[in-house]
Amino acid sequence: MPNPSAAMIVIGDEILSGRTRDSNMHHMAQQLSEVGIDLREVRMIGDERGTIIAAVQALARAYDHVFTSGGIGPTHDDITADCIAAAFDREIDVRDDARQILAEFYRKTGTELNQARLRMARIPEGATLIDNPVSAAPGFRVENVHVMAGVPAVFQAMVASVLPTLTGGAPLISETLRVERGEGDIAGPLGEVAEAHPDLSIGSYPFQRDGRFGAHLVVRGQDRAEVDRAMARLKAIFA
Amino acid sequence: MPNPSAAMIVIGDEILSGRTRDSNMHHMAQQLSEVGIDLREVRMIGDERGTIIAAVQALARAYDHVFTSGGIGPTHDDITADCIAAAFDREIDVRDDARQILAEFYRKTGTELNQARLRMARIPEGATLIDNPVSAAPGFRVENVHVMAGVPAVFQAMVASVLPTLTGGAPLISETLRVERGEGDIAGPLGEVAEAHPDLSIGSYPFQRDGRFGAHLVVRGQDRAEVDRAMARLKAIFA
Predict the structure, then answer these.
(1) Most exposed: A78, A152, A205, A238, by fewest CB within 10 Å?
(2) Is the interface score ipTM higher than 0.95?
(3) Alpha carbon of A234 to those of A83, A179, A213, B24, B73: distances in Å?
């Protein structure tokens, strides 16, 4: 059976303007590989209502899971929750359980639960909350869309809350052979090995260091024995 | 007049599997900001023919410029050039000018121009070559799509070759105010400033350091005087 598929949406003008370097995508990719969910597509988009709604609808239809990061804080440019509600045609309002989580957290830290912070308790109708052990304000899940914060520490905590609730497939096994030759010398025989193992994904990732060219040959698959056979063949040719 | 718009497509299984951390997107975003071209969307996709063709067609229609990275090397998984040709319904074959560039480079470095390396001279009909001062094998442009390599050093060299040929708009002016208060305290007054300056993009990017919360308030726009006015207002409130 093929692994479940996933897409991610990274939301935020600051990523597209080059001000902030996104790190959530790479974290998500690594975590999903480990649990056997195939990340197939990532979209990075700005804080724009129409764009967010369209991306959520398109990807929720196309993949088993969608993960979003960004835009669920208390400020005027945090519009993700409202967009998710609109994408699924659901009502959205401050929800009692989310409000209580915030009230308790802010009482402990001696912070006022003002109107702005209360925005973070706006949750689409029927959504399931995602635990945020870092700063309390929850993420949420609507159907197959998991809505999480953009701040990396909070995003990572939410991913850790979500992943155990999902059914993964066979984790991806990945083996790498470093070859100190140009890709142009490698390509022919590598292509033959790839052809002989159609169930594996065999890739070549060139590097350049100290003026010399080389490549990492990566064999990926779910069947340990087959990955080992392909790696043995590559070593026999290139090592 | 609004700035020209752009999208980027990052191509490669190694990015989606979490093996490699992409750095080309961030570089592209920063470079485009400087020349006044608005990056509106980034898609990261795998080495899959149908997916690449669909993304190229959709984004080439929607934006003024499209930039791709990855998949133009000599190995079997380098399928970007063929996908671009298919996306625009053009022929593709080894082209004499590209072959000559490779032949000259490899003669100098004493490397054989074999069948695999010759793949890198496969260029869609009517495309314009993009200079690659690092490793010779050229990128190319078809209509509004600029096709570049994935290796960061080569990608950056190609971006430097391409950008001077494009007409940008007004570069984005961006000013940042660091505020050591939680976003929840900032949100109310910040929203009022944003409302008073509808032509500016005013964002709040929370951070957490040593257990304390704060935010970077960022004012972006093309009109220096208006950016300054908004920043002065924010400083009066928060500094």
Answers:
(1) A152
(2) no
(3) 49, 10, 18, 29, 19
